[in-house]
Write a structure and sequence with these properties.
Blueprint: H1 2-20, H2 26-36, E1 41-47, E2 53-58, H3 61-73, H4 77-84, E3 88-90, H5 100-108, E4 113-121, E5 124-133, H6 141-161, H7 168-174, H8 179-196, H9 200-214, H10 218-226
Antiparallel strand pairs: 1-2, 1-5, 3-4, 4-5
Helix pairs in contact: 1-2, 1-6, 2-6, 3-5, 8-9, 8-10, 9-10
Length: 237
């Protein structure tokens, strides 16, 4: 039975890639997972150099916005799945939860349940696959196992294709994802680090804090930093 489920999951990912006529990439795992699990969105995160989970692909704009919000808040199922290295299952976000700010925003975006599964490399979580549903309710046993299989598939892609140096294969793996928007966040973090004469971690926290308190998207604030419309000074802390 388990081997049969694994073959079905693999076949669904392969079909998503074949429909586009391209090699299998992260987005095909997310697209196939969303269809098979009746999800309104699926996001994959990968741990960045700063030790933060950063989204590399979202199946739609709403999922992208929710993922960016989690990074901005430092709060949500994906954040905790990465930190605690175990699945996080939020079966009804309209009920009191451990992520009140995130839950409110997710519900406003039409999401009622979120399921986050860490991508495990041995005992270390190097990313997260996160599933959003429009209806509250837990996963069935079969759906839970399928989610783990999709997480394994995403992890296998990372192990197979990610090199020590960026390559054309790596670009193809994440094509269609956050791409340039997240590059701007990295660039802005470096600029803020110089402005504050601080480490990158502090710079990123300042960028994230500004986005949160102004209610703006992280990438939008980052673009203001790159364009010189926003500057961070040590005295502003």
């Amino acid at each position: 039975m388990e081997d049969g489920r694994a073959r079905e999951v693999t076949a669904s990912i392969d079909k998503a890639a074949q429909d586009e006529g391209v090699p299998v990439a992260v987005r095909h795992v997310c697209i196939a997972c969303a269809e098979r699990m009746r999800a309104v969105g699926v996001v994959q995160y990968v741990v960045s150099d700063l030790g933060q989970g950063e989204p590399v692909y979202a199946t739609d704009l709403a999922a992208e916005q929710i993922a960016e919000l989690q990074v901005t808040l430092g709060e949500g199922p994906a954040v905790d799945a990465l930190a605690e290295e175990r699945p996080m299952l939020a079966v009804d976000l309209t009920e009191p939860s451990r992520w009140p700010t995130f839950a409110q925003a997710a519900v406003e975006a039409g999401v009622r349940a979120v399921f986050a599964f860490p991508l495990q490399m041995g005992s270390i979580a190097v990313g997260v696959l996160e599933v959003y549903r429009a209806m509250s309710g837990d996963l069935t046993t079969v759906e839970y196992r399928d989610a783990l299989l999709y997480s394994d598939a995403a992890m296998a892609l990372l192990l197979e294709h990610i090199d020590d140096e960026p390559s054309a294969r790596e670009v193809g793996l994440f094509a269609g994802g956050f791409g340039n928007r997240w590059d701007v966040v990295h660039q802005a973090t470096g600029v803020i680090s110089v402005q504050l004469r601080s480490g990158l971690s502090e710079a990123f926290l300042r960028l994230r804090g500004h986005a949160f308190f102004t209610g703006r998207g992280l990438a939008d604030v980052a673009e203001d930093v790159i364009e010189g419309r926003l500057r961070f000074d040590r005295d502003d802390a």
